[in-house]
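Researcher: Structure prediction, please.
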Amino acid sequence: MKWRGKFVFKSETHILYSYAVSEKKAWVNMCKRLSELHGTRVDEVMSIFDGSQDNFTIGREV
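Model: Predicted structure follows.
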């Protein structure tokens, strides 16, 4: 499945896409991509988007 994610990271909005079998795997893929784009560790990105804040959405892309 193709997933679309909208992430607000460091005052920037990122729209990312990922092919994954689940929403959780898509989230992991997108967090890895954001960490590469911003030169930070993936665990730091994952802690920002851990669901405690309303700073990202992920949904299926049709």
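Model: The first strand starts at residue 2 and ends at 9.
Researcher: Thanks, that helps.
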